[in-house]
Amino acid sequence: MPGSHIDIRTADGVADAYLARPDGAERHPGVLFMMDAYGLRPRIEEMADRIAARGYAVLAPNLFYRSGRAPVVPMPDLSTESARKAFFAKLRPLFGALTPEAVASDGAAYLDELAKVADGPFGVTGYCMGARQGWRVAAAHPDRVAALAGFHGGSLVTDDEQSPHRSAGALRAELYFGHADNDGSNTPAQIAALDEALEAAGVPHRSEVYAGAAHGYTMADTPVYDEPATERHFAALFDLLERRLVR
After folding, report:
1. How many CB atoms lie within 10 A of CB 168?
2. For residue 124, what are the domain limits?
3. What is the domain count for the chain?
4. Mind listing the pLDDT tens digit for each residue in 22-34?
5. Could you tell me which of 94, 51, 50 has the C-alpha nearest to residue 71?
6. What are the φ and ψ backbone dihedral angles of 230, each rounded to 5 degrees?
7. Would you call 27 helix, strand, or coil by DSSP?
8. CATH no. for residue 171?
9. Span 88-93, mean pLDDT?
């Protein structure tokens, strides 16, 4: 089940991406994988491969493609606070390019590419900042996304007029969130506000805090990797996908 690296034409350029498919030439349900802030790299490909092994075609685009092909910013030394701050300072302009409008436009191109090899409606799974971007894709293309999962996501609820939670009414997918514990980017108050917005909009969802799991817990190439929490995340993700995507 070898994956392949492909290019996707978008309204703003060309996004490089990783495509993982199950063995065999037949079509499968499709999953859009929205990366974390560390970018498209071997760990993301490993996770996409594992999802594909369950019978899904998985597309993981480089969300930072406007600034270059992956790796846009090489994995940093995360052992010190100063190194982490310097790294995230480099990321700020990359985050800034991911406006709601840009993500919605990119999302259409990604889903179109996935539709070449997979059947919709699709699933979306997002990590760290990818949970927020995955929400924006699902809200912008509600008829094309039947399942949305977010893991150790951040900034899903903010004071901004374009905060993701304010567009809950646009969603048609079923949602699952596996929140990190003690996460400064996603506090208990923010989690509660997210749940309230989804409940008010009548969106089916389940929201769980993974006790003791830090922000970034699924990423085996970082110091915060938590194997039990990662396995729990895969179980929850597969449960959602297997119920919501047509085989």
Report:
1. 20
2. 4-244
3. 1
4. 986 688 999 999 9
5. 94
6. -65, -45
7. coil
8. 3.40.50.1820
9. 89
